[in-house]
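Message: I would love a firmer grasp of how sequence relates to backbone shape in proteins. Thank you; the sequence and its tokens follow:
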Amino acid sequence: MTRRRLLWIGSYTPDSGIVGSAAGVQSVWLDTDSGTLSDAGLAAPSSGPSFVVRSADGGMVYAVNELDTGRVSGFSITGERELTHRGDAPTGGSSPCHLLAHPAGRHLVVANYGDGSLSVHPIGANGVPQEPVQRLTHTGSGPNADRQEGPHAHSVYLAPGGGHLLAVDLGTDELRCLPFDPAADRPAGPQHVAARLAPGSGPRHLAAHSSGHLYVAGELDSRVHVLRFDADTARAETVDTLPATKEPADNFPAEIALSPDERRLYVANRGADTIATFEVSSDGTRLRHLADTPTGGAWPRHFAQVGRYLVVANQNSATLTTLPLDPADGIPGPARHTLDVPTPVCVLPASVD
């Protein structure tokens, strides 16, 4: 029996900081047997909803609005695939590109790429994001004059151990760390630099292993950096680094994610236009490159594992592609299906496997 999975697709719009052709958050059906994708239409109009996440209870979807004057929007799930806009709030920063719905269900934390700040938003009783109760700024720069003239917070995550947040700063080559108490009126404590990566690495996104190891995609040096995070000291140290792909290309890694069983690490490579697969050692300390699989599109910015498939958002070719995962070795095969989608940049399964 065919099983369909709904996917919400973050995108760029004509009025967003990076100009795209979408009208908002889009919806797509995935046939989990065949890997076929079919267009389900516009889920909700929105300006520059480039990154989307589910609420902790699964009843809301939140999106950054990647604009010069940043905002974060909340949508309730209505009907089979529709999202209804319930409200939004300014982030106080520019070009927000990533957000965390804290698992306690009380706050959103937004990474504002343009000015490098983090904004902390309480979630109202109706699920709507409120104005920030904290805005955490940072200073610094890196050696790449075009991309690292100042701080650029590119993503934010719950740190291993659960008591801290980690912000990945492309502009300063740092992981910033802050204690976070969701029961407090001002939940974020003072931030500090948990780790400094190689100058010019341009860290973008990370994946956290249950062992406490972190895998950080370096957008500017095209490498994966392995760090050991100590939850007691809230510090991290680099233990290894290796190329993000073996394909010869000017390459800029984007999304990085572990398989559910943590045996494989996947990296989206823009330029090489591949998904790289790495074997992860059982203790999380070592990675070994296994394969580079073409995505069947151009500039793969993001992907999500949905059952037996990786669904890849190829920004520049304006396509979604499905790559079947080999059940024995976890390596994705050639793209099985392609769907034209206006400027897709984020893939969010509407429900958890």
Residues 4-199+296-349 form a domain with the Methylamine Dehydrogenase; Chain H fold (CATH 2.130.10.10). The chain has a mean pLDDT of 97. The radius of gyration is 19 Å.
